[in-house]
Design brief:
Elements (H helix, E strand, L loop, with lengths): L6 H7 L3 E7 L3 H12 L4 E4 L8 H4 L19 H5 L26 H14 L4 E2 L2 E7 L5 E7 L4 E11 L5 E2 L12 E2 L14 E5 L3 H10 L5 E5 L7 H4 L11 H7 L5 E3 L2 E7 L5 E9 L6 E9 L1 E4 L3 E2 L14 E2 L4 E2 L12 E3 L16 H20 L5 E6 L2 H14 L2 H4 L4 E7 L4 E9 L7 H4 L4 E7 L30 E8 L2 E7 L10 H6 L5 H16 L13 H7 L5 H4 L34 H6 L1 H11 L11 E5 L2 E5 L7
Parallel strand pairs: 1-2, 1-6, 2-3, 6-19, 8-15, 9-10, 9-15, 10-11
Antiparallel strand pairs: 4-5, 5-6, 7-16, 12-13, 13-14, 17-18, 20-22, 21-22, 21-23, 23-24, 24-25, 26-27
Helix pairs in contact: 2-9, 10-14
Amino acid sequence: MAPQLDTELAGLAMNEPYEYVIVGAGPAGLQMAYFLQKEGRRYVVYEAQPRAATFFEKLPRNKRLLSLNKKYNFFEEAEFNLRHDWNSLLSDDGEMKFTSYSDELYPNSGDLAQYLNDFAEKFQLNICYNTKVTKVSKPAECFLLTARTDGGVETNCSARCVLMATGAMEENVPESIEGLELASTYGQYDMNKEQYKNKMVLVVGGGNSAFETANYLSDTAAIVHVAFNKRIQFAWNTHAVGDLRAVNNNIIEMYHLKSLHSTIGSKVHKIVKNEQGKFVVTFKDLNTHWDVPGWLLFDMEYDQVITCMGWKYVRPEMFDDTIKIETVRDGRYPKLSNCWETDTENLFYIGTTMASIDKQSASGFIHGFRYNIRTLFNLLEQRFFNKPFPHFVMGCKNLQAIADKVIERSTVADSIYQMNGFLCDVMTIDDKSCIRYFTDLPVKHVMEIPEFRAAQHVFIIYLAYGFDKFGETAKPVDNVHAPDFSSNRCGSFMHPHIEYHSYGEYVDQTELMESLIVRYDDWSNAKFPQWTSATNENYVKYFVNDKMGWTKEVFNLTPLPEEVIGQVFVPLNEEERSRLPPLWEKSECKPSQELLSKTQQPQKIRNLRPTEEEVLNSSSSQASASSQVCSAPSSPTLPLQTKRLGTHLDITSQVTTRQ
């Protein structure tokens, strides 16, 4: 367990001026503290709890992390293996890895809590436990923080820079849903399954916590509904690790395999309790597919309602009027710049809150924000101490050195792999054709840095997916075939992109070929002989030389030589080509599709009853009955009518609207 600073001594410590104050000793606070301590900076971490990372002692409720702990990856490079270790913090100690704490692919959260406390103790990080920061202000150039120990001692300290590593601060319970406060929350609901036996349960939310809860109760509850008011974002489609993961989506599978559990794509409008203590939930369902689009309101009755609607990552009340904190995303996140700074200079948020500006990558998880924090540390070293940002000097007019570095980073680098499309490498070439190669900068921040904005030749290198090129109807999970080797522009899985900027303006870009394991070294080329390493090198050389004009050499950009194509590629014959499916939309790249069946099933003729004419002819006989159900302003006639019968729905021949 990490050493605790005596609470009486903590008050004395806090009277010292610091260069940095970190609020919170979760994984983000510990990671930043490690870099500051290694550099010898004057800092302190304030933690309200008696030990680090207590969040993971309680959450997730099922104790199973969504962060992969993939220990065996065939390759020996430490950087490469961090691509698949989602829980370790960065350090120079090769033994201080989470992989030695668990063999589980989805490990127990308690193991992570233990690892993080051991990390704090191993590096003797300067943490004041049992000390809660209650107010932050900035009366002048420095910040003033007020904190209270668990012994009731209140004291102040000053700092040049404040780093908020507070993580998830409270559960999100939107006030816009009337009666939602009557429900239990994800962090508080009773996990005794006996209480849910043969009961109806509603889980409100469409993310991992909601489906984790529904899965947990699915073997005991009679019916579990998961309600959400927007389309579910599946991680395998979005490639965002915070979206719904496959390990949590059993309820969706059970729904489609005809169990009683199901999902409801309707907005929870109102919750009340009836005399029997049941929850009566009014749903508001958007029906754009009806002949006359509109909202359908209906009631359902439940024994239990549990709300799982995420977290709030900011408490504006912690700050006084001298500090500006704007919020975004329905007040859940602080507004941050492209380098994680608030509107108040030198006040930053680190950790999972860094996802405020990143929905495409892994900023909300340890395996993402550990790199963001290292990048922010280097930016702060530059800001406060004029230290140059880490970079390599690579000589002048050296196309081979450039190609080697791009291939090396694309093959083993963990940072730009985990933070795909968000962190990048930057290569500048000066007027003497001399090369500098910078690593791990935020893509959107690069051209905000004067040095890069003023440069004539800037190359930005990052890893990104290419699924967006295949059209909106193409599903990423269907891209299971080899990419088109006739072009380097149609890779779907993650692969290197290189952009060229001049004087702050985007000019051009190229891409390398796709790799099944995102490696581009000789081993990978030997095991997966779909392309040659020389081709990818030549793509880099050709693109840079096209901008710089260093040589008249002709670079071979043919991925597969003709003699190889003749051995490994067989064109479709005429009969097979006749079974190519039609393309439903035009797109930059053609999606991979399966051939149509040789024997087509005859299309069934559907005789639908009642017909539209029969519905219209019956409308007059139903008009009087409709008026007795509910009154409404005049509206277009719809094909169906909904009547309330207790908490059930009776579908009759014509719908009236409800206010």
